[in-house]
Write a structure and sequence with these properties.
Length: 487
């Protein structure tokens, strides 16, 4: 085998490899001999077909396999001989492959860079700790009680007021024609919740059960259904019942309904859960700060193919976001988006290579058990489809890699944090929120994007409100508005 260096510039290499004709012929004969033992040709006993007939009938069919085998073996040998570690799958260009002649091909490959990590003991990182006080716990319990509050019909002929739940039938029309999502029966609407389009709930105040009312509203200009946006709509409503919330009492009975022994046990659980949530947010903040420092402290040449592949993936997400939300095209714009997302790709590749090198040098790995636990957790996010989700992941190597990658990253980050100079600072929840908001604003000003792709920071956890019912059309409008204002 003859190997010639065509290009050797930094991490980029090109090799011309020539495999002698006799080596190719040896592989071809071996493959044809393997085939001859499996095929049946009339007039010949199994395994006794002359090689010339086997070659005539099956020569072209096995040439592709022989080519793949010869290229693979020759390329692996050449890369090993030159101690080149590919960053990605090398590109192969066949120059010559004729029957009875030598095989000639070009290999283009980017190799992994030499990485010399800094002394992690010199890296200073701040770790925040949120002090959870009793006032926060009591507020969380009160919110839980409010969200779990039941309701009962009002007594007497009192008229509806803000905070009441009206049970109604309604049908909406625009220009006298009904529209999708504009009709419902026995719908429970909390007045003052701003669940419907502006002005709808206000017109249901001061009514008694049994009332019929025509509610006139103007559909929002940003309404996703273009035939309804900005149009005048009339909803014919029948108020069937008016209910008022029945506050849930915070006592042992309340806790027992949740499966706990007492209110004190519920408080303990709430405190542990809150501390866990805040601890998770603080850890993510520390991790981001560490990765920022590692990115700034390490400058080494990056494989062009890796950066290009990562950039293409990010750019595709960016284009899809613009395509899926054309009404928000201006908000999605970034000043010099190609440069911005190229920088994002370079950062990801740099940190990925660094963490991989640290993990490899320190024998950090993710066990099959850890991957399996994460896979089960992912499947449980899709109730009723757990088995299907698990099978889908296990049949797709790339999907399984997406499960393993964050586990590996977190283990390497923890390893580095154990050696780093970590200082701890206690903050209140409000202070944590303000610091995260300040980080986001600083990042936005630095990069100058109005809306970023896959670089969103996690906010501090908020107490979730009770889910609200929505008509299909209204739900779509709220979702679109959220997408627009999310960042």
């Amino acid at each position: 085998m003859e190997v010639t260096d065509i290009k050797n510039e930094g991490l980029s290499h090109e090799l011309k490899i020539i495999v002698p004709a006799e080596d190719v012929e040896t592989k071809l004969k071996a493959k044809l001999e393997e085939v001859s033992g499996k095929v049946s040709i009339p007039g010949f006993r199994p395994g006794k077909v002359p090689p010339s007939i086997i070659r005539q009938r099956y020569g072209e069919a096995v040439r592709g396999e022989v080519l793949e085998m010869a290229v693979g073996e020759a390329m692996a040998s050449a890369l090993k001989e030159r101690d080149l570690q590919p960053a990605m799958q090398p590109k192969v260009e066949i120059q010559k492959f004729e029957d009875g002649e030598e095989l000639e091909f070009i290999v283009k490959v980017d190799v992994l860079p030499e990485i010399d990590p800094v002394d992690f003991k010199t890296v200073e990182v701040e770790k925040l700790k949120v002090a959870v006080d009793e006032e926060q716990i009591e507020k969380s319990l009160a919110d839980m009680a409010e969200n779990m509050a039941g309701s009962e019909p009002i007594s007497g002929k009192r008229k509806s007021k803000t905070g009441d739940i009206v049970v109604l039938d309604f049908e909406g029309k625009v220009g006298g024609e009904p529209f999708d999502g504009g009709k419902a029966s026995d719908f429970h609407l909390t007045l003052g919740s701003n669940q419907f389009v502006p002005g709808f709930e206000d017109q249901l105040l001061g009514l008694t059960a049994g009332s019929d009312v025509s509610v006139k509203v103007t559909m929002p200009d940003e309404y996703p259904a273009e035939n309804l946006a900005g149009k005048e709509a009339i909803f014919e409503c029948t108020v069937k019942e008016i209910r008022e919330k029945k506050e849930a009492e915070l006592n042992d009975e309340f806790a027992k309904n949740l499966g706990l022994e007492s209110l004190d046990a519920l408080r303990t659980q709430m405190r542990e859960r809150t501390e866990s949530e805040y601890s998770s947010v603080c850890r993510e903040k520390t991790k981001r700060a560490l990765l920022d420092k590692l990115d700034n402290l390490h400058q080494f040449e990056l494989p062009g193919s890796m950066v290009g592949s990562e950039y293409d993936s990010i750019w595709q997400q960016y284009l899809e976001a613009k395509k899926n939300h054309p009404e928000n095209a201006e908000d999605d714009e970034v000043e010099n988006p190609e440069k911005f997302y190229r920088n994002v790709a370079e950062r990801r590749v740099r940190l990925g290579l660094l963490l991989a090198a640290v993990g490899q040098r320190n024998n950090i790995d993710v066990s099959a058990e850890e991957v399996n636990r994460a896979l089960i957790a992912e499947a449980q996010r899709h109730p009723g489809q757990e088995k299907k989700i698990i099978e889908m992941y296990r049949e797709n190597n790339q999907a399984m890699a997406s499960i393993r990658a964050p586990l590996f990253e977190d283990k390497v980050v923890d390893f580095i944090l154990e050696m780093a100079n970590v200082s701890e600072r206690e903050v209140t929840l409000d202070e944590l929120k303000k610091e995260i908001e300040a980080e986001q604003m600083a990042a936005a000003e630095k990069s100058q994007p109005k809306k970023k792709v896959s670089t969103k920071k996690k906010a501090a956890p908020k107490k979730k409100a009770a889910p609200k019912k929505k008509t299909p059309a209204k739900k779509t409008a709220r979702s679109a508005k959220k997408d627009k204002n999310d960042e």
